[in-house]
């Protein structure tokens, strides 16, 4: 029986959250390096975290509806299927 993987909304939230932590920390460092202002770096980081987290979530959910690049696999015949 062919199966196609999907992911839960919770998985999308967790993926988005962990990625945003890494990306926001990078943004904070860049802003601090450029401005030398810790408060400004934290403010920009906070705004960036919330905004991009929401955008990422909806982007991930939308891509689950797109069949481009997806294929059906038989877990009994595919050694790479976990």
Provide the fold topology:
Blueprint: H1 9-35, H2 38-63
Helix pairs in contact: 1-2
**Poorly predicted runs:** none
Number of strands: 0
Report the sheet with the most strands, covering strand number, pairing sense and barrel closure: none
Terminus-to-terminus distance: 15 Å
Percentage of helical residues? 55-70%
Total helices: the number is: 2
3D structure, described in words:
The protein is mostly helical and 82 residues long. The chain has a domain at 10-63. The protein has two helices and no strands. It has helices at residues 9-35, 38-63. It starts with 8 loop residues before the first helix and ends in a 19-residue tail after the last helix. The mean pLDDT is 85.
Describe this protein with a few key phrases:
elongated, 65% helix, 82 residues
Summarize the model shown:
By secondary structure, the chain is mainly α. It contains 2 helices and no strands. The model has no long low-confidence stretch (mean pLDDT 85).
């Amino acid at each position: 029986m062919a199966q196609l993987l999907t992911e839960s909304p919770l998985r999308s939230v967790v993926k988005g959250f962990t990625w945003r932590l890494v990306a926001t920390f990078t943004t904070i460092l860049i802003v601090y390096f450029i401005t030398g202002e810790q408060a400004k770096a934290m403010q920009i980081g906070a705004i960036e975290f919330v905004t991009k987290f929401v955008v990422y979530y909806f982007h991930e959910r939308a891509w689950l509806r797109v069949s481009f690049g997806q294929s059906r696999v038989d877990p009994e015949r595919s050694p790479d299927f976990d």
